[in-house]
Amino acid sequence: MSGRGRRRGRGGPGDNGWGEFGGYMEAKKSKLAAQFEQEISSDEADEAASGDRAEHIRPIFAGVCIHVDGYTEPPAHELKRLMQKYGGRYAHYYSRAEVSHTVASQLATSKLKALQPDRIVVTPRWITDSLKAGKRLNEAPYRLRVGQEAPNPPPPSCSPSKGASAAMGRPEYIGQFYANSRLHHISAWAGKARQLVADMRAAGAARFPGADRLRAMAEAERSGTAAACREQPQHQRVVMHIDMDCFFVSVALLTRPELRGKPVAVSHASTSSRQASGDAGGSGDRLRARRGADPDWEMRQYGGAVASEKASCGSLHQSWSEVASCSYAARACGVRNGMLLGRARELCPELVAVPYEFEAYEAASSQLYRLLGEFTHSLQAVSCDELFVDCGELLRETGASPAQLASLVRKEVQERTGGCTASCGLGPNLLVARLATKQAKPDGQRVLLDPAGIAELLRDLPVRELPGVGRALEARLTSLGFGTCGLLRGAQVSALGRELGPRVAQTLLDAANGRDDRPVLAERERKSISAEINYGVRFQTMADCEAFLDGLCRELQARMRAAKVRGRAMHFKAMMRRPDAPQETAKFGGHGVCNTVNKSVALPLDTDDARLLLQECMIIVRQLRLAPQDMRGLGIHMTRLVPATTGSGGSGSSGGGGRSMDISRFAKKVNPFAASGSAASSLSGATSSSMSGATSGFMSGATSGSMSVATSGSMSGATSGSMSGATSGSMPGATSGSMSGATSGSMSGVTSGSMSGATSGSMSGATSGSMSGATSGSMSGATSGSMSFSSASGTSSSNTFGGPSGATSGASGASGAKLLGRKASSNCYSNDRNKVTGKANFFANAAGPSLIEDEEGDERADSPAV
DNA sequence: ATCCTCCCCTAC
DNA sequence: TAAGGTAGGGGAGGAT
Ligand SMILES: Nc1ccn([C@H]2C[C@H](O)[C@@H](COP(=O)(O)OP(=O)(O)OP(=O)(O)O)O2)c(=O)n1
Ligand SMILES: [Mg+2]
Ligand SMILES: [Mg+2]
Ligand SMILES: [Mg+2]
């Protein structure tokens, strides 16, 4: 019937829908899973036979695979039935790869301990309560832990409220946060979409069934309408853009048809909002301000513009939860994606809030991409709900018109997703296609290929509608008198370039004229990878902070390994409570009003090692004297990526011949890594006089030794030793030692030592020592020592919130901590861009910053300069 | 000129 | 209560 059965049949139950294209997933499936598929299929057959409509059964356990351990109530076979009925899987035998949840009433301590700490062990009530609640509940209150009897969690109606800070200390917080973060999910799904496109292209296709259907459609309609066969110009580019209509809401409506046409919003606050919206007086809905929080003040910091236009917006914000997506009926009231739910309710009192269904969005997204992959592989993933299709060739080959393609694709998207609509725009380039989609929404299509039509659309189009023009650029353009594309067309590139920079000016002018020559780019190399959490961060102690950073580093390590990349530069970011901001934030768990602190470190070697990253982070935290109690958010970014070709093992296996040469300034000078093209992570013998590319090198007793690119190198007793590019190097007892580019270097007892470019260097007992470029250096007992800091790393901080910065001045530059000996400035995380002075600058941004709500976008704003 | 680092801005 | 992530383009200003 509807696409639903088909959908499940394709992806396979429990499959999140993104399984690698081609044979990989198939091959990987265990017999148990295969058996499960059979069982599900027969279940489906049963349902179909009995006329049981599957629509009202929500797959709330999608992605879950349970293994039942020991006796339970309800018994295992009943749990198995429930899992299968609600989208989950059941494994007869425990397997780490297959099983996501172990279900047990009690478990021997020894057995619990044997399981990895990240394994989820829950009581059967997690399943039964989730079914009662109609959604998958958080496992936390149902978890079985060492030394704990079967817990007795509260009924699902009264949610187990743990304060954010209570949840924070626990190691599972990071996973829990990500599991509930919509922004994390949409980023991750965009990545999966890109990967799927790459996989499809790699696998190739014998034929394109979608193209066949399109051809059939074109022929059928051609025979009906005599000479309607219009040839596409032979070499004209046609780009189609597809975007799901209010994506999250559309998915929500699949199981809530009664809400169609109504103002609906997806948000986290939805569960409790039901009782709140039933409260006609609204007073019960009022969020009780927690002790010390100052919503009005905070709202003023965020929303200069909004606050001035709406006198009391802070206190009226009853819910600070964000609206991820809202229906078009809600948009008619002025509600927008990214808006706070409280404000949305002001604009639209009848607004119905519904909860997230992440698994379902992912499944729908996967269907969208797989469907388009049946037409062509010239796809550019934009996001989980949006992509470009290079379709000139497809149209020529099938003889179909652009409108026919759009109609067919939209119809099939709706079928495959079980009823979600998409809109399509077609144009001669990415820009016009995208603008056309916007025009067509919702549930429509627009073909915009003729120059006259394009010109007409652009004439009065506000510049803000252009992709790439957000709040800040709009403000600048408007103040220059270029509020619309039509006006912008009259601008001179040179003049505009002086205001906005040459590239922006040119792109803008092109856009205003409907020109855009970017190709549909199906694959591109990743340039950075990161993990960041700015929610729920509350530390009591440095140990809390370190544990959290440890978790983030591990997360990042996992992401790097999954993406098969390693990084050669690390960027640390901390959001610090602004000194004038109250401890308690208006938004529960939010970061509140903050200054951000950034520090980057050029690593001497590429790495994907969490331990190393953590070490760097902690050095930074201590060096900058960041108080854990004031931290509201932390992030780690890696750049200067290199492919992790040799894969495997130790941090710092040399990245093959392709390593780029620009390491740190120091390392470049002293150690031309690029010259050592050896990809081997081999370990040369102790007597070898030169060792390069070693993952872990050890050299002792060498008369003249040199070691480069070692991840962990140690050289002892060398008469003349040199080590460069070591991640962690130690060189004791060398007569004359030199070490450069070490992430963490130590050199002791050397007669004449020099160390440069070390992130963390220590040198003790040197007769004559010199250390330069060390991020954190210590030298003790040197007879003659010199230590200087330079700009191998930079630090800066800026304010989280601020109005659009006009001409942001800012001589950030080479802000290395500079000192002889030790830096001991107090740090107040201000916007001081000139750290060299070490001067405190408390309220660098005392002038009212602003953060205004965004139409389509988010409501974050960024820092102005002082 | 061109590169590099440190940001800001934008989009979903 | 609530889950404010993530990646890329590009400008400013300094180094080369
Ligand atoms: N600030 C935002 C913007 C978007 N999203 C999520 C929810 C959206 O449903 C999805 C897709 O974003 P779109 O910009 O495509 O917006 P919608 O699909 O919701 O609406 P439209 O019909 O305008 O495309 O991404 C979000 O969580 N927060
Ligand atoms: Mg959309
Ligand atoms: Mg979209
Ligand atoms: Mg825009």
UniProtKB/TrEMBL annotation:
CDD domains: BRCT_Rev1. It holds the Pfam family BRCT. GO terms for biological process: DNA repair; error-free translesion synthesis; error-prone translesion synthesis. Residues 1-22, 146-165, 265-293, 642-662, 702-817, 846-866 are annotated as: Disordered. Belongs to the DNA polymerase type-Y family. Keywords: DNA damage, DNA repair, DNA synthesis, DNA-binding, Magnesium, Metal-binding, Nucleotidyltransferase, Nucleus, Transferase. This is DNA repair protein REV1. The lineage of its organism: Eukaryota, Metazoa, Spiralia, Lophotrochozoa, Platyhelminthes. Residues 11-22, 647-659 have a biased composition (Gly residues). It is found in: Nucleus. Residues 239-470 form the UmuC domain. GO terms for molecular function: damaged DNA binding; deoxycytidyl transferase activity; DNA-directed DNA polymerase activity; metal ion binding.
